Amino acid sequence: MTALTTDRRAQTRWSGRLLPSLGILLVTGGLVLLTWYTWLVLTPDTAPYRYQQVTTGNASEYPELELDTWPDLTISQYDIHVEGTEQPVAQAWFGQRANQPQVLLNWKNQTREPLLALDQKASELSALAAAIDKHASRDALLLGWWDTSRQLALLTGRDVLFHTPLHEPLIIPPEWQPHEQAIRAYENQQAGTPADPQEQELFMRFAQSLVNPPANGLDDLRQLAGTRDTYLIVHVSDLYKLGLMYPDKFGIAYKHYRMTGNLHGMISHLKTEMRTRGYYTYTLQSLSDELIRAFFLIDEASYDTLLAKLLPFTSQPSPVERTSPRLIYQQGGYWVYHLTAKAPAHNTLQSGKDSNETTDSTVSVDQVQ
């Protein structure tokens, strides 16, 4: 069973247990082998993994990505290998148009813990991009995490604040920390473009807004957006990334659960885990038909942040009830809000579902009982 991750505030609460100093325990499990240590010591300025291209083709050749709407995209699939291991630790799919830099569109982790990027269902991204392409004005600004921004800029052609790979946070195991700069340089090389320092500053303002109290955070985001028609896009996996960036302000833990025929049994086990650990609330992300990731907020202070208020947590008010910003789209792990609007209030994205309906990818557990 995958070990729980948690932030450093939990150290005081559970002083008798081994917890990380960074705030989220990245248990590497079977990922780290003895050969890694030798190789890392001998090559301190080299990224400890390599992208190996497997195939390339048009979008129709990769039906699992559900990108047929974008036939002009070139898709490249890579295996990610670590020295001393035969099997890839992850798989990646990049999309590219003409001579533009390639953008990571999908990631499949083969290890027990997050590595470099977070898994999610490919169908969620394609559905969101199709809705934006159909309903959002051509001059709309899409405001989201830097990786989400790059994906949607590629698929929709809408403007975003973050066009370059910013690698914040850098999701790596502790053994790779001495190679942080080498990893950042290698990721820039793989993407075909370096991180932009000005975008880096803007992104830190964006991330800080999400960890601020809701009213202050929204004011900060509106200042970033200016007067443009702006859609704020958040994903449940942003919880994990924000926790890595601000472990002292945002306490997040996670655990994987296998889907079985006994759904109520899994829910009962999850609630028992929450009570035992003293967590405040939780939400779920569907990774596949067989696997669910539960995110736990460890205290009320973490819930009293903008990002937490924008996402569904059990036994807490639904984001659907918010009046500002107004929820206009929800599909899987994505929740989209009209942050600043030039258009009439009735102009919304259409998900093909009632906006009050929670999908299987981010479902309040109490709602499925």
UniProtKB/TrEMBL annotation:
Swiss-Prot/TrEMBL keywords: Membrane, Transmembrane, Transmembrane helix
Chain residue ranges for the region called Disordered: 347-369
InterPro entries according to UniProt: HaoB_nitrify (IPR030891)
Residues that span the membrane, as ranges: 21-42
Alphabetical list of NCBIfam families matching this protein: haoB_nitrify
Name of the protein: Hydroxylamine oxidation protein HaoB
Annotated source species: Nitrosomonas europaea (strain ATCC 19718 / CIP 103999 / KCTC 2705 / NBRC 14298)
